[in-house]
Structure formats: C-alpha cells, structure tokens
Amino acid sequence: MLTRPDSYQELSGTAIVTMTIARGLNNGWLSKEVYEKCARNGWEAIASAIETDGKVHICVGTMSSEDGSYYLTRPKIDDDSHEIIGLIFAGIEMEKLVGKTGRSE
Fold first, then answer.
1. What angle in degrees, to the nearest 10, is found between the helix axes of 12-26 and 81-101?
2. Phi, psi (5° rounding) for residue 50?
3. N or C end of the chain: which has fewer CB within 10 A?
4. pLDDT for 33-46, tens place per residue?
5. pLDDT digits over 55-86, tens only?
6. Strand partners for 59
7. Across-strand partners of 78?
8. Residues 6+ apart with CB under 8 A from 92
9. What's the angle, vertex CA 9, arms to CA 5 and CA 11, rounded to 5?
10. Which residues of 17-27 are buried (b: 16+ CB within 10 A; e: fewer)?
C-alpha cells in the first residue's frame, strides 16, 4: 500500500525494477540519459533498507486482498531467500553499471 505511510516499506518490487533498468542500461537497450538516474535512485532505496548488520527486513509473501488491513498486518521476516535474490541481482547489475560509468555516487 504505497500511499499509506503506516504500510510496510516495499522492497522486492523495487529490487526487480532496479535490476531490470540497470540490465537494460548495461546491454544498451535503454538510454542512459533517460534511465540511469532511475536505476541509481532504485539502488539508493534498496541500500537504505539494508541494516548495518546486513539484515534485510521483508514482509512474507502476500496474496491479493481488497482488505487494506490484510496488507498492514503481514508478518515480517529477516533475510527471506526468495526476496533477497532480487536484491542480489540488482546489486550485480548496478556494480556492472558503476563499472561502465565510472561513477559510484
């Protein structure tokens, strides 16, 4: 629930979209002028969600519901492998992108 500040922070979708944009940039499929800032912003959001001890807090897998309270009460877990893999793939693509552009900011 992206419009609710009391909702759990979305991360897995951000990781997948960031990975996809970075991969598109790395393969020359997307324009750097248009999409590089998007990839960098996505990575900044991902990096800010990783705790100093490396833990990533994630909401368990979620089905769909029309009941908003369903989303607000989903259990949280640390380092779920199904979610972490998206973060890893995003990191790999961003590392390639930083290597190509020579900029890490």
1. 30
2. -90, 125
3. C
4. 999 999 999 999 99
5. 888 777 777 888 888 878 887 877 777 778 99
6. 76
7. 57
8. 19
9. 150
10. ebbbbbbebbe
